[in-house]
Structure formats: C-alpha cells, structure tokens
Amino acid sequence: MKPLNIGMVGYGLMGRAHSNAFRKVRNFFPGEYQPVLKAICGRDGAPAQAFANTWGYESVETDWRKLVERADIDLIDIAAPNNVHGEIAIAAAKAGKMVMCEKPLAMHAAQGDAMVAAVEAAKVPNMVWYNYRRVPAVTLAKHLIDEGKLGKIFHYRSQFLQDWTISADVPQGGPGTWRLDAAIAGSGVTGDLLAHCIDTAQWLNGSINSVTAMTETFVKERTDSATGKKREVKIDDASAFLGRFDNGSLAIFEATRYARGHKALYTLEINGEHASLKWDLHDLHRLQYFDHRDDSRVRGWRSIHLSDSDQPYMSHWWIPGVQIGFEHTFVHQVADFLEGLANGTNAAPTFRDALKTDRVTDAVLASAQSGQWTDVAAA
User: Fold this and answer.
1) Which helix (H) or strand (E) element contains residue 222?
2) Where along the chain do its domains lie?
C-alpha cells in the first residue's frame, strides 16, 4: 500500500475520533493508500506530545504553519476550533496538501467561498467531516429515497437537543467551552448542531432555498475562562427555523443546548407520498420505516436493524445481529475518502458541498435577526 502521511491540527474530541479512524480503516476496508500518523499539531507541546504517545503520531508540532510546510505531509486534517479552519485550509491547499476539515466548514459563507476557491484552484482532494451521512441507517435512508420508495417528499423535520450549557456557571472560551465564544465558534447551536441536521437534510432531500428563523441566548453573560471576568454571550443557545426545499417539501428544524435530559438527541423524519422513515442517534443502528403500500392487515412501522452484509458498510464489520457505533462513522468517512483518492474522484461532502450548509446557517441567523423570511444565497 502507498503511505498517506497525515498531519493533524487539534487533539480534542474530534482529534481522537479522526485519529481512531485513520488507525482503524485498513483493518476493515482494504485499499491502495495506508494512512500514516506522521504529525500532530497543538499550541501546547506537552499535551500534544501526550496525545502523540497515546495515538502513535511520529512527531509533534506547535505551529500549524510549520506542519503545512513539511514536505513529508500529504494531508492536513483540521480538527481545531472553527476560527482557524479558513486560514489553515487555504494555506494547506496553496502548499499542495490534501485537506480534511471538521464541520462547519467556515465561520460564515464568505470565508467558505475563499476556502472552496483555494482547494479548487490547487486541485487538491478535500472533504468535510459531516460524519452522520455515514451512519449505515442514514445511508440506507438515502438509498431508499433515491430509489423512489418514499415517492414525492412532503415533510422533513429534524432536532438536535442537548443540555450541557444550562448552568450560568459554565464559562465561555477555553479548551472545553470555546463553542460558547462567538469569536471562536462563529455562532452557537446554529453552526454546531443545526449544521449537522442541515447537511444531512440537503444530502437526503435536496437544497433548502428559504428560511424563517428564531434564536435565543438564555444566559446573557458568562465568565471568560481566560480573564475570569464576565462578558456578553454572543452565540445562540437555541435555534429553530422553518424552511422550503427546492423539491417543494417543507422543513422544520430545532437545535438547543437547553433541553434538560437530552445529551445528544439527534432525530430526523421524512414523510413522503408512499412511505415515511425516522432515525434517532440514540438508536443509530436502526431505521424506522413505514410503507403505505404494504398489505393493510400487516401495515405499520417496522424497525430495521442494520447489521447484515447487504446493508451499507456492514459487510466490512462483524456478523449479522452485531451492531456498530458512533466511532465507525468516521472510519467509513476515511474509507470513502481513500477510495475516492484511489479512483480519482473526490468523495462527498467536499468543501463546496459543505459551503451549501454554511449558506443555510447564514440565512438562519440573518432571518432570526430580521424577523423575515430569508432566501438562501445561491452557490
């Protein structure tokens, strides 16, 4: 196999998820390229070295610019906070590196435009880590929709509910709570949780063209983790919107970090002319499916447990009846990226694909501010 030397920026939760995927992919998905964990980059040398020791990275950098300049790095993987995605990705593309980037692509669509222009001008393979596309049950939903099983789509609804920021004592900024700092995150749940919902929705059901939204910041001030002083919170704690898809179907989306009792309740439901389907991250290996064309005597919702070899991705794993989990979605994403690299195609979602999501989140935030229906900017 040909070595593919990985240089990763960031060693938090997503750094772990990505590292695990690069390490595991060839144990289960044979192919032409073998990822090599060549270098990890973080601002603080000691924790970066500890991460390297745990995951098997060969070297450590504390300046991402030096990492990008290294001749022995083939691919830059950005698993760092949102505010550095643009600068790193553009520099990596100009240096001729392949680029993978955590979601959301950018702080806003204007920055995303520049990132797309950079990777396309450099003609480097690129991808954004919207991993929920590669949950086998969600992939099966895509197949069923594309095969016309649901018929004309009428409704798409999705929620992503959490509860970890309800306490006013949670600070903003810093390693664990940077998502509460608008200067680092760009936005709150709109760019974090709703971005996942929107990416999946547009993959399954086509483009969203207009939205009307509302957002709320429930805790107006939080302690700055760096200074210890209170300052205004500028991210959205909750976000909800109605939307219209190009195919005429209607959308309802909601995300919040204030749904007590929910840690990561991500759900979607699609209602079509002939059939409907539902999926829940808490039961991620199952797809709920209803088909009105079934014999009326036995018609009803069925729970499809994805574990058989003829279902998406499952032939690479265990025996029928044994399920997989969250971490496997990242392995699937790496496998698809490497397969695309081998056959000369760029696996989705590319930077351009992810820019479509940024355009929707921009429209959501603009609508929430204006109180008006807002068109999603054209690509």
Assistant:
1) strand 221-223
2) 2-131, 134-374
